Q: What sequence folds into this?
């Protein structure tokens, strides 16, 4: 299952055909019900190596303070995915046990393949931006049947 864009509420079947997408209302309810601050997940590449979804203030009087926020965080530690040929950074999440604050140091491999494999590179770019591409195609589709013409 994956977090939905912030403007999509509730649970919806996942476009990937596995699980559901869950909106910020579901995330906040789950975290509050279980007295958790974060839902930390992995296995979804992002260009910066991580993505914060559904961020909300834990205490409305301190909503500008990042140490008083909760939400869903996706961390993807494989830089240059896949096979060292992509463009994304890898990231790790370091959680401060005392404050609950986190940092996300990122990294990227500098060694390039001897001969560029443009098909793999392009596939990784499309994969990394799949959700945005699908959303753009759906918005472009006139009859909303998941088909679009160019």
A:
């Amino acid at each position: 299952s994956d977090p939905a864009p912030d403007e999509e509420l509730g649970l919806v079947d996942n476009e990937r055909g596995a699980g559901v997408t869950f909106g910020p209302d579901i995330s906040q309810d789950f975290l509050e019900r279980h007295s958790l601050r974060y839902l930390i997940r992995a296995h979804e590449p992002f260009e910066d190596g991580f993505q914060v979804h559904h961020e909300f203030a834990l205490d409305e009087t301190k909503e500008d303070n990042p140490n008083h926020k909760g939400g869903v965080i996706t961390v993807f530690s494989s830089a240059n995915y896949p096979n060292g040929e992509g463009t994304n950074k890898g990231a790790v999440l370091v959680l401060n046990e005392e404050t609950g604050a986190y940092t996300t140091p990122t990294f990227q491999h500098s060694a390039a393949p001897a001969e560029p494999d443009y098909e793999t590179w392009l596939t990784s770019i499309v994969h990394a931006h799949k959700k945005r591409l699908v959303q753009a195609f759906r918005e472009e589709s006139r009859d909303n049947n998941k088909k679009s013409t160019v």
